[in-house]
Amino acid sequence: MKQYATLCAMTAMVLFATACNQSVDREAEAKAIQTNEAQWVQDFASKDPEKIVAHYTDDATLMTPGSPASSGKDAIRNGIKQMVADPAMSLKFQSSRVEVAKSGDVAYTQGTYTLTMTDPQTKQVINDHGSYVTTYRKEPDGTWKCVSDIATSEVPPPPPPPAPEPSKPAKHK
After folding, report:
1. Which of 96, 118, 164, 167 is most deeply packed, by most CB within 10 A?
2. Per the domain annotation, does 13 fall within a domain?
């Protein structure tokens, strides 16, 4: 019995040591994230809100220029639905940097984007471009989902409309 207990203890220690020493193939994980982003670009091209939103976690936050942050999948979905309803809308992005944590459970990408859409005020098609950072979390099923997505436009905002001329006081007779 003592030998059995010793064997069980040794087996447990070996399994524990093996589990603790598992290394993450960060290069393979980075490639998986790049593949995910390429699919995400295709999903934007399809203008299918559900496919696009599937890339986000339930608790994700999306921050885009000129808009308040959208927190949670439902808020993100509402914004995406409005975005893809625009016939002129086109979004493309490409990461130039992918970093996976040593733990293998979080990562981020950094890159550039181009966006074409209709300005809601002027009804004119505008072209935007800029940079983005997306933070990912590896889900229990092994997929990478966006937790935080932020874009920064490199296009300066339009000038404010001219101020109305001050009215002249009325002359009294």
Report:
1. 118
2. no
Rounded CA separation 78/167 (Å): 43
Is 160 within a domain?
no
Q: What is the pLDDT of residues 84-101, one digit of tens each?
A: 999 999 999 999 999 999
Give the Cβ contact number of residue 142 at 10 Å: 8
> With b meaning 16 or more CB within 10 Å and e meaning fewer, what string describes 19-54?
eeeeeeebeebbebbeebbeebeebbeebebeebbe
Q: With contact defined as beta carbons under 8 Å apart, do 114 and 129 qualify?
A: yes
CATH number of the domain enclosing 44? 3.10.450.50
Q: Which residues pair with 63 in a beta bridge?
A: 150
* Domain count within the chain: 1
Taking the model in full, what pTM does it have? 0.78
| H/E run at residue 140 | none
How many CB atoms are closer than 10 A to CB 117? 17
What does the alpha-carbon distance between residue 153 and residue 66 come to, in Å, rounded to a whole number? 9
* Domain region containing 43: 24-153
Q: Which of 66, 37, 45, 36 is nearest to 128 (CA)?
A: 66
pLDDT in tens, 114-157: 999 998 888 999 999 999 999 999 999 999 999 999 999 999 87
